[in-house]
């Protein structure tokens, strides 16, 4: 049995410690917001936070998560109140087909919540966002509107602090 | 009911109606559906490119007790994946020809994925291998006959301003200058991030299929033939679809066939979700093409004759190749005035996996050729490349290569003007760039391209399709839009909501677009060809207007279905390929500044400006997303995306080495939305989906030529290609 925290709740799963975290989330915990795009850590659709750091859940064995905290896309919103990056992805047009969106929302929430572009001027911040999100592939948007959304969310969050 | 006209529904960036579901992870794609009681299917595939299937053996040591196996012998109807022609089987029959690597031979289903994979490995096709046809030249030599006597799936010849080849040659001979070149473009993977996915279940004697797809009624048509059943016996529903770009136009019918056969045999629901490697290896890609182009001009640089020869590799089955070639040849002369034009096109059979639909649909290949040609003309004349294009470009009152007289909505001056206004000075040819690892030397260049793209089906295609759409008033002041057009991320349902809200004069929140399912929505035609907003959106608008009128006249809950009617003046001759090839065209111009890293020889796009005439942006943010997404796919095709075939097999079937641009590879894209209204489109809109894919690749090649002083006539322009060109670089 492996015990870990998922989106703030203690969860216990009976699974091989070698089982991919991705499969445990999707199959055992029915948290299907986390997507599989390639299964080899290239596309980032399965990105979750492990102890507040983004990881590809297809490359993490669930045994590695024992007594640690996992945040999935389902854990970003507070009740019906969307996370700032989720709001901005909707309003800025940063989601199209949506399959990469959960991974991008999770990774971008890390950028915003950690304040990784706080105080960085927009032109430079856009480059930083591009580097930090380079592990998440989106085939629909050309990335422009996603970068817009992350900057928008970060500025909103800064202003609210 | 709120019956105040909301004049602001169209033209505003209403947040996409499926946005919240997508950013929260609540949107359910097929693989997110509950798996309880569902078997997992796997496909047994060919390992050779060409041969004869002699037997299908099963490993006797394997435990088959919980495994369902299906072969061609289980097919009750016709063993075809019906599309244009019935040459492609759903499963290769014993004694039949294996036509490509990764062709489906048998199917298995099991309670778990692990068991299904093991079972698939325990099925052993015995194939007598034959020498395959792996090049277009070998296909044309036709020593091995894959299709008919000639291996040519389809051939076109379009003549304008001359009757014989001799007249054409005379026109070329009379010219002051001849620009001639051969242009090669490679296969390209759509790389939607949700792989192909489909599930079937037989209930009440009917086959219910749900999955990731662009065209539910294409699947419906194919299943009726395969299952030998009536139209009501098979029901196709679209699940939330994680990207398509053409890759889910025809291929989903293959998956549907497979899950339907397995589910019938198993008596249980069966799901197939491809893994990434299988998806890249087995499914369709953009046609590789070779285009030979002769551009003959007078002393002023004006074309007097254009001769284009287009050759495409269709792969092992005909699939959509004739239509891809059609769109390719119809755009091959480019958006330039020319009195004498000959366009020839052939698409041939090889033993590559079938090539198919991908955004642009043949036009990107021919656009690359003609925009390289115009660039060479500009260089030869020492003329500003954008000014030259402006001087030669088609405008209202001109005729195209098919003798189509252009009427309204020709955005030539607007898109070229938009680029001129923001272009600024060209970057210095030689310089340095700061990188995290230090200062590197670079050569810089600028390239432009100008192009057009026909919106909607070719010629009389829309009339043949006769697409329909329904708008229904519902109790409680709500309205439904019923259409088979799918939202694959491009925003179709949001656009429909806006058009319906505007026409009904109600708030967008009162409109629901019904999820496409073949027994609940009329056939609106396929979700392809930059036609959904323009053609089906037009039906939404017309139907909604009539609902409003009938409600105003006192009818409580009118339900109105509209069918496509061609705009006036559309005449097309399919025999000679002359007339109105498309009801209207989108127009676009692109500028890129690039730098070539003199250490790594990588080409980086430093700046990209794209001006696109869309008629009317129903939702500017969604339009911007279409333009930018298409632009980056084109930049990727130009510089880094590559399918490597080895002995007919995709050698790089993984996202590790079959790469697409990341956030870090992508430039900031400056989008200029140009609106030259199309009088017969909804609120003036015309197509936008494909045109952004057409031109940026040529702009990049033109820019690399500008930087290094030598021609780049094939893509992708990989670092090794740049390295090989080094002896030809100009001195600074």
Descriptive key words:
heterodimer, A: about 160 residues, Ubiquitin-like (UB roll), DNA polymerase, domain 1, 2 domains, 5 strands, about 15% strand, B: alpha+beta, Aldehyde Oxidoreductase, domain 4, 3 domains, seven-stranded mixed beta sheet, five-stranded mixed beta sheet, about 25% helix, globular
Task: Describe this protein's structure.
The complex is a heterodimer of chains A (161) and B (732). With 161 residues, chain A is of the alpha+beta class. Chain A folds into two domains: 2-75, Beta-grasp domain (Ubiquitin-like (UB roll), Roll), CATH 3.10.20.30; 84-160, DNA polymerase, domain 1. Chain A has helices at residues 21-28, 84-92, 101-113, 122-132, 144-160; strands at 2-6, 9-13, 47-50, 53-56, 69-71. In chain A, strands 2-1-5-3-4 form a five-stranded mixed sheet, sandwiched between helices. In chain A, strand 1 and strand 2 form a beta hairpin. The longest helix of chain A has 17 residues, at 144-160. Chain B is α+β, with helices and mostly antiparallel strands and 732 residues long. Residues 1-6 of chain B have low confidence and may be disordered. Chain B has three domains: 19-28 and 466-565, Aldehyde oxidase/xanthine dehydrogenase, molybdopterin binding domain (Aldehyde Oxidoreductase, domain 4, 2-Layer Sandwich), CATH 3.30.365.10; 33-131 and 191-282, Aldehyde Oxidoreductase, domain 4 (2-Layer Sandwich); 382-458 and 582-728, 2-Layer Sandwich (Aldehyde Oxidoreductase, domain 4), CATH 3.30.365. Chain B is 27% helix and 26% strand. A seven-stranded mixed sheet of chain B has the order 3-5-1-12-9-10-11, with helices on both faces. In chain B, helix 9 (363-381) packs parallel to helix 17 (696-708). Classes of the chains: A alpha+beta (161), B alpha+beta (732). Chains A and B meet through helix 2, helix 3, helix 4 and helix 5 of A and helix 1 and helix 15 of B.
